Automatic annotation (TrEMBL):
CDD domains: Lipase_3. This is Lipase family protein. Residues 302-443 form the Fungal lipase-type domain. SUPFAM superfamilies: alpha/beta-Hydrolases. It comes from Pseudomonas veronii. GO terms for biological process: lipid metabolic process.
Length: 679
């Protein structure tokens, strides 16, 4: 031991009595605030330290005052832990709102050990700035870092042993501890509200830009084939992202990460029932129809997947054009007889059969879960392409439950008589310029004897006969043709042409000696893509003052019918293109229009705004040489474009809507998504 320099030997008794004065006692204050800076008042708490655990002094008990302040006095210079009673804290935090903008930390990549739910970054919160400026200590906490035990969840968690990781980042309820060196001061505790994300959706007969954007994202999510635990899957979106309040939920699609427009709701109002269905993966596989549904306290959401290019099943479904009677029962409870979809008209055979397979294979989901959600919640249905057609059939089957349907690039599904029968069904269908799919099946009577004459071969023969019938007339209208249902929202590529007179052969003259003249038209360089929702002008008819402010050229009922024929697509004079069909072409345009409508005066302007201004200036410069019909059409369409901002008014008026738009505007990248204007 002689080599140990720290060894000491004391022959005297080291334990000596010490007589001193009264020990100095300390104090501490905790001020509990929500993200809006409002106090969390009248909440029961207890504070403990080593002295209370050794029963030298009793535990410190009480309630926060009207300012959310908890003051504890008579403390020994020891670390002290604050624990809040779980249920009162949870109940109050569920009623508080989030601030508009979130910290939005980057999501850890593979190999990155950064916690998914780390602490909020410093310098982000306004409350932090105020606290530090006043000389206070600042801390950002979540409910699991304060409460004394697990709160009671109503409705209960799907897995009671798996708490939501964002709100409960630690496995034990140890409370919030301050070291002995941080006594004699106030600690401002900003506590995250006990909330969840919900898609901002408006159940209304009028067009909503936020509905178009969010339901477009759900139509993209319906295509996801990822494992339910994988980033970008249906379950991961609703069960994890919608409970992570540090980030805005996003839909992953081919490398793109689309931010959603979301509003915070009480945790008890979160999405509870989430399911992705595929008839090909059922217990008894049949067909190839897929959809997802998610149900919360206020919403029942169903998104149908569109045509999958892998394999032939979906393509065969699309191509089975034959119109048949809608002898498919409306969705009702199992074993309860229901009426057909429509009393008149016909429906596309392939779409009808695909829907019927899903309804039969997943009868409990359709007959109990979704139907039960539709009874006391707002029902939203959406889909792209084939998914839009199946969504329309589904909405028709639930027409008594007032569904709201948004579709994208959907083909014609019902014949004219059936479409007219479903006239009261709320439906907005989006068409991207010359997308070929909304133009099939053709507007012709496809029900003819050849379908029945030769069995399966008759399908091809019957369609060929019907197609010849369709092209034999410039106007494809027959007794009961396939027709479109719903109000159109079109992304229209506008061009302008200058007319000029020429003398092609100066040597040839008319009898009166004047030269023969011809008029040619050539395309002007500036083009614009316009977001046209003619139903918004109908609202203007009812609000004359507002319409006067918004419209320079009135789109009255007569011109609406000419430019946007009922049950059909607008005439463009251009060839249809399959390249305009994909959601990668639809969603960027809705995304950028949403950004423009949120802040039309942003600096710098969006490229779409700059291009449209060039187009309008070109119209002014060449108005004398542009054909009158084209000039009139472009002026009316530009006025319609100006009306699109009205589709954001409902979002701006509802609770949480303004914050939802601010949040989206703060994180959305105006240059992230390219919208195709030409070609």
């Amino acid at each position: 031991m002689h080599n140990d320099p720290m060894h000491r030997t004391d022959t005297l008794n080291p334990n000596k009595d010490f007589i001193g004065g009264k020990q100095k006692r300390h104090w501490i204050e905790f001020q509990l605030l929500d993200e809006q800076g409002e106090p969390l008042a009248n909440l029961p708490y207890r504070a403990v330290n080593e002295a209370t655990r050794e029963r030298v002094v009793p535990e410190f008990l009480g309630r926060s005052d009207a300012e959310g302040v908890i003051r504890v006095e008579g403390l020994h210079p020891l670390p002290i832990t604050l624990l809040m009673e779980a249920n009162p804290l949870a109940d109050q935090l569920q009623t508080r709102r989030l601030r508009a903008e979130r910290a939005e930390p980057p999501r850890p990549v593979i190999g990155d050990r950064t916690p998914l739910y780390g602490p909020q970054r410093s310098g982000f919160s306004p409350i932090e700035k105020q606290a530090l400026a006043a000389g206070r200590c600042y801390h950002y906490l979540r409910i699991g870092q304060l409460c004394d035990q697990q709160p009671t969840f109503q409705p209960p968690l799907n897995d009671s042993n798996k708490l939501p990781a964002f709100h409960f980042p630690e496995r034990k309820f140890n409370g919030f501890t301050v070291s002995g060196d941080e006594l004699d001061r106030r600690h401002v505790l900003e506590v995250c509200p006990f909330r969840a994300w919900s898609l901002m959706l408006h159940h209304q007969s009028g067009y909503s830009l936020v509905n178009a954007y969010n339901l477009g994202l759900m139509s993209i999510l319906a295509y996801s084939t990822r494992d339910e635990r994988e980033l970008g899957s249906v379950n991961e979106f609703f069960e994890q992202q919608c409970l992570d309040l540090s980030r805005t939920p996003r839909v992953w699609d081919n490398g793109q990460a689309w931010p959603c427009v979301v509003v915070d709701v009480p945790f008890s109002d979160r999405y509870l029932t989430i399911k992705a269905l595929d008839t090909a993966k059922a217990d008894v596989p049949e067909g190839h129809t897929q959809l997802l549904y998610a149900i919360s306290a206020s919403q029942a959401l169903v998104a149908w997947r569109g045509t999958e290019m892998e394999g032939l099943a979906d393509l065969i479904t699309d191509a089975t054009f034959r119109p048949v009677k809608p002898e498919i029962a409306a969705v009702c409870e199992p074993k309860v007889p229901c009426p057909d979809l429509t009393a008149v008209g016909s429906v596309h055979l392939g779409f009808r059969d695909a829907f019927e397979v899903a309804r039969r294979v997943f009868d409990t989901d359709f007959g109990k879960t979704i139907l039960g959600g539709a009874r006391d919640k707002k029902l939203f249905i959406c889909g792209h392409s084939l998914g839009g057609a199946l969504g329309l059939i589904h909405a028709a089957s639930l027409k008594n439950h007032n569904p709201l349907l948004y579709t994208y690039g959907m083909p014609r599904t019902f014949t004219l008589h059936a479409v007219q029968f479903l006239g009261d069904l709320w439906h907005f269908r989006h068409v991207n310029d010359m997308d070929a799919i909304p133009r099939v099946p053709p507007e012709a009577a496809l029900d003819n004897y050849l379908y029945d004459a030769y069995g399966p071969v008759g399908l091809l023969a019957g369609f060929s006969w019907s197609l010849r019938q369709a092209v034999s007339s410039a106007v494809f209208k027959h007794e009961d043709p396939f027709s479109h249902h719903g109000e159109i929202a079109m992304f229209f590529r506008a061009k302008q042409h200058q007319q000029q007179e020429i003398t092609p052969y100066p040597a040839y003259r008319k009898p009166d000696g004047t030269p023969y003249r011809s008029t040619i038209a050539y395309e002007l360089p500036e083009k614009a893509k316009l977001y046209l929702v003619p139903s918004l002008s109908e609202d203007g008819d009812q609000q004359v003052e507002q319409a006067t402010q918004c419209l320079n050229t009135s789109l009255n009922a007569e011109s609406r019918a000419r430019f946007f024929p009922r049950y059909s697509n607008p005439a463009t004079g251009r060839m249809p293109r399959i390249g305009d069909h994909f959601m990668s072409q639809y969603q960027p345009y809705i995304h950028n229009q949403l950004l423009e409508s949120i802040d039309a005066e942003r600096d710098p302007l969006l490229e779409r705004q700059v291009q449209r201004r060039k187009f309008e200036q070109q119209l002014k410069d060449y108005y004398g040489s542009i054909h009158e019909d084209e000039l009139t059409r472009n002026r009316v369409f530009l006025d319609l474009q100006r009306l699109v901002d009205q589709a954001l008014h409902i979002t701006q008026r509802v609770a949480g809507g303004t914050e939802a738009l601010q949040r989206f505007n703060a994180i959305a990248d105006p240059k992230a998504y390219y919208e195709k204007t030409d070609g």
